[in-house]
Structure prediction request, 1058 residues.
Amino acid sequence: MTVILNEGDSAGTSGAASGSPVDAAPEPGKSTTRGRLVLTRFLRNRLALFGLVVIVLMYLLAFVGPLLSKWSYDEQDYTAFLQAPYPAHIFGTDKIGTDMFAQTMRGLQKSLLIGLLVAVISTGFAALVGAVAGYFLGWVDRGLMWMVDLLLVLPSFLIIAILSPAFRGKSWLLFVVLLAAFQWMITARIVRGMTLTLKEREFVKAAKYMGQSPGRIIAKHIVPNMASLLIIDATINVGSAVLAETGLSYFGFGVQPPDVSLGTLIASGSDSALTYAWLFLIPAGFLVVFVLAVNFVGDGLRDALDPTSSRGRKREKKADRDRDDDAPASTQGPDTTTSSTTTSGGGKA
Amino acid sequence: MSSAELLFDSADRPAPTGPVLEVHDLAVSFPSESGRVRAVRGLSYQVAPGEVLGIVGESGSGKSVSSLAVMGLLPPQARITGSIKFQGRELIGLNDGELSKIRGKRVSMVFQDPLSALTPVYTVGDQIAEALLVHRGAKISKQAAAKRAVELLDLVGIPNAVERAKAFPHEFSGGMRQRAVIAMAIANDPDLIIADEPTTALDVTVQAQVLEVLKTAQEVTGAGIVIITHDLGVVAGFADRLMVMYAGKAVETGQVDEIYARPRMPYTLGLLGSIPRLDVGEKQPLVPIVGQPPSLTELPPGCPFAPRCPMEVDACRTAEPELVDVDGSAEHRAACIRTDELAASDTEGAEAAVEIFGAEVVEEAPIAKVPREERKIVLQLSGLVKHYPVTKGVVLKRRVGTVHAVDGISFDIREGETLGVVGESGCGKTTTLMEILNLQKPMGGTLSVLGQDAADLNAKSRKAIRRDLQVVFQDPMAALDPRLPIFDVIAEPMQVHDLDKEHIANRVPELLDLVGLRREHASRYPAEFSGGQRQRIGIARALALNPKLLVLDEPVSALDVSIQAGVINLLEELKAKLGLSYLFVAHDLSVVRHIADRVAVMYLGKIVEIGQVDEVFDAPRHPYTQALLSAIPIPDPVKERQRERILVTGDLPSPANPPSGCRFRTRCFLHATLSEDKQRTCVEVEPPRQEQGEDHEAACHFAQIRQVL
Ligand SMILES: Nc1ncnc2c1ncn2[C@@H]1O[C@H](COP(=O)(O)OP(=O)(O)OP(=O)(O)O)[C@@H](O)[C@H]1O
Ligand code: SF4
Ligand code: SF4
Ligand SMILES: [Mg+2]
Prediction:
């Protein structure tokens, strides 16, 4: 996995201060805390907002849609085999006459839940394990990293394949946990490495000497400073979870007929992608839109969390410049070009 | 130097006449997202053979860029116009091949970071020999080159040069590397040496050595030198002429003595007034130059210094002033429309700066008038020890030695008092601070904070003490979480100590006011502030809980001089206003003299001298203190040239293997002059700390006063 880090993350002392004078013009006298600031920055990003709306709409569609349809995903219409979309079956039917709309909605439900849950669980777990191991070191670290190494050498596909029959009929949630359980290890290792460097940074020491507890230090300083990594990781995980689920289902584990997921639908529709295109294009289209929307939201979230990103602020620039001009000299706005050199000028410890 | 003749037989080359370097109307700009960065805007200067030109200015003023342009080392996207003539030959427009014939042979450069100039995989000797071979080609044999490399290393003062030539760069200390780079720079007997902050990364004692080497290099090669620095002290004694740069332009040029004695541009005046003086005992006001240097992308018309200038009038904003002759001499030129008025005023130098910039001496706190013995002790260390194990092996860690980072130090700090701790890097200053901040039972000795012994603390009482003990770090960028808005940064200590939300919401703006920032700044991120502002934020955070003791780890060393003065003034004000005590670690002795009441000098994990600041600075007893003080350049050319330098030889010994007896004996100049049995005392007996006067102790068997300032 390639990890693209921005300045905020690699947490360089570079003072990268890409430094345009910035941000969210605050109402005087009223200060904004991180939560609110991140929210306003996120909401300002049109594409991310659009992505979020699309995801919400997909959920609504996936769960409300089936109620509106008179067909269910495990029912067959024996009067319509392999029909292209027409009013009675708006997404058409497959070769045994199942309504594609009902199937797609059912699949969407599964994939949405599996994709997002697996991503959130595995990334969250990776962040937790990596940060805890890197922060505490010692036997905690050895224990956790031993677990990571063990899981890395185990052939995950085989294990899931072996375990699945035992879970058959049980909740799909177990399946989610299983998928997540095999996706977090590499990220955890990366997170541990980053924690090791972050821990030496002075702001973490500052928090420690303030009396901040280790748990809060991890939650407040360490994890947020890896936000870009984690968000990228999570968005990638959404895609790969859906794919992993498809792969497993294809081999007969995971989601089993008559139940469907977008993955199984795509797999079975791909044979007839050219002849009966709707069988393939419709579920594939939903998957593409879903993954794209997740990526938009991820991007937006990353920009919102990353103070050095300029996206969330562009429109503010002019107003801000005006404000800085009338600043009393002693507290002038940050310099625009030189802040990166201010820190480097004094490496004379 | 006897080897000089043999190395530099410049007779075969006709002595060049006229200036070595002539820069005329040089302009350099870079493309950037927010428009073209005009880093250098019309710079003209000359360097005569054998002359030393100093270039000073704040970070980002274009010092480095203009010199890189001379070397032809700017990235391709840079647009360069104007003229750069080296010995009459135009350099702009030459292709890289032609330039590299000149570079390294006729012009050489010494960078701030010596490591980047040396290739890690070749020995130092080979690299110097290589520099010779590249430019002399067939004229010199490999053996001769290797031999000459050793001679050069010897010339720059590397002991045991034959052996050392075979070492790799990483085996050299910072000062030795810089010397090796200088050896390489003078290998081909250049006509011009450009040194960009050659001593900024080094300790003061090593800085003095390296400057000495540069002087030797200049003497033997007869080259012109351009030395770039932000330290007005360094150039005072070394340079002949000075050029002050601001926003990509020269704003004042002239003879060093002239400029220091009679600055004619408010910026230069401010710079001179902003540095604390090592040689001035009574409290002097420091001149802070408010604000930031302007953005180089969209400079407003008029004088670029106008927004920060106390003498600014409407006329300043109409057109950018050109360099004009001042005081009727073509030697001294300044770019300001009000130079005449500066010349007419009856004060000069730092005094004039204080008058014009309106700086004031900070009033002392009432507590300072109470005799020291009657004040409460806020911090007490007695015999504090911190050793680190040195281990070898990855799987089975074996202990192979001990680093004696801090080896039994004692001092106390009373209420309302500032103790400065000084010493070379690696002497254990930061370790001491961390031991105090950790509030754990020390390895040896005792540590007590606000009357409580650290050994008796439990988690709860430790947290309670943390309320009164706060820290300010050196690097203002690293000390603030880049992901937290300033509000949260400052609020954090209060949240940790469970203050209610409302209190915090009121307190944060209050604190911002206190440190001279604006309340609206609370919702910005750290990256949006300049270094000086970030340090103010760090201080605001430290003050959030009304602490009693503030521990400051080099709080101003990462800041430009003009900004530094503002932060020092702030710290002094706060101390007076809030009755704080400071433990102030710094390597800059001038700053310590200015701010501290008492000073402790550390060497290799021990305190060698401690006492009242004026006592220690005016009548230092320990040879190390004397050497340290004499190594600090004073920003006064006349005084500086008369001073006698005590050069300590070599580098700090490894703390894993400190010398027996007196730890300073390997570098002690006094030790070398003693009779044999006295020397034996130094080797065998560790000198105890002895009373030398009222509140003044030193740890030397043969302590004697020697004035060095
Ligand atoms: N390669 C580059 N691309 C774009 N801008 C640059 C580049 N190099 C330098 N600059 C800009 O040119 C200006 C002058 O930089 P310069 O390095 O000369 O400053 P300086 O006076 O040497 O400062 P310092 O004391 O920090 O070394 C700065 O604003 C800097 O950001
Ligand atoms: S020209 Fe005006 S603004 Fe510029 S330095 Fe002189 S007095 Fe100050
Ligand atoms: S004890 Fe001896 S070696 Fe140590 S500082 Fe004094 S004279 Fe020098
Ligand atoms: Mg520079």
Remarks:
- Chain A touches chain B through 65 residues (CB under 8 Å).
- Residues 1-31, 311-349 of chain A have pLDDT under 50 and may be disordered.
